[in-house]
């Protein structure tokens, strides 16, 4: 059983393997995203959050999933274009994955087992400290502008 997210690898939206150990020493906010969801407008807030705190060590990891309502049907190229064109996303984006069910990627198995929270919908968020340990889960209804989320991020950034 993994003890940190740094033990996992994902595929970038451009098709390259990315070891999450790349993010050692960074505070990470992992978000399962979708382009055709009522919460899709959270991309704007996630980008703002990233731009506000990136110089202090925050990274936002956008992880597309089509698990809920088939709201992320596009290819990686289409997702990348959508995010860039509509929300000027500059935070790291990854290839589409399964975040629940039998084909759930190991990273999401770790995240859900660690927090005791299964992913219920698009734009669920997992906050991870600089050591790669999951410290908090936020449901879709918690927007990136949420004061508690921001306070939690600031506390981890130090």
Description:
- With 158 residues, this protein is an alpha/beta fold.
- The protein has one domain (5-153): Glutaredoxin.
- It is 28% helix and 20% strand.
- The chain has helices at residues 42-53, 76-87, 106-115, 147-157, and strands spanning 9-11, 17-19, 27-33, 58-64, 92-93, 125-128, 134-138.
- The strands form two sheets. It has a five-stranded mixed β-sheet with strand order 5-4-3-6-7, sandwiched between helices. Strands 1-2 form a two-stranded antiparallel sheet.
- Strand 6 and strand 7 form a beta hairpin.
- The longest helix is centred in the first third of the chain and has 12 residues, at 42-53.
- The chain is globular.
Biggest β-sheet: strands ordered side by side in the sheet:
5-4-3-6-7
% residues in beta strands: 15-25%
Structural class: alpha/beta
The amount of helix comes to: 25-40%
Count of domain modules = 1
Rg calculated over all Cα atoms:
14 Å
Number of strands: 7
CATH class, please?
Answer: Alpha Beta
| CATH fold field value | Glutaredoxin
Categorize the overall geometry.
globular
- The arrangement of helices and strands along the chain is EEEHEHEHEEH
Give the N-terminus to C-terminus distance in angstroms.
29 Å
Mean pLDDT: 97
């Amino acid at each position: 059983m993994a003890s940190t997210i740094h033990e996992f690898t994902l595929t970038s939206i451009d098709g390259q393997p990315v070891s999450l150990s790349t993010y050692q020493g960074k505070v990470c906010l992992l978000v399962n995203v979708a382009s055709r969801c009522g919460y899709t407008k959270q991309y704007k807030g996630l980008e703002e959050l990233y731009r506000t705190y990136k110089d202090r060590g925050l990274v936002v990891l956008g992880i597309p999933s089509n698990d809920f309502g088939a709201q992320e049907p596009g290819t990686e190229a289409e997702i990348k274009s959508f995010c860039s064109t509509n929300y000027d996303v500059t935070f790291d984006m990854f290839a589409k994955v399964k975040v629940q069910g039998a084909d759930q990627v190991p990273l999401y198995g770790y995240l859900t087992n660690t927090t005791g929270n299964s992913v219920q919908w698009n734009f669920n968020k997992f906050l991870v400290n600089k050591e790669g340990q999951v410290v908090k889960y936020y449901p879709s209804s918690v927007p990136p502008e949420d004061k508690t989320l921001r306070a939690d991020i600031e506390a981890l950034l130090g």
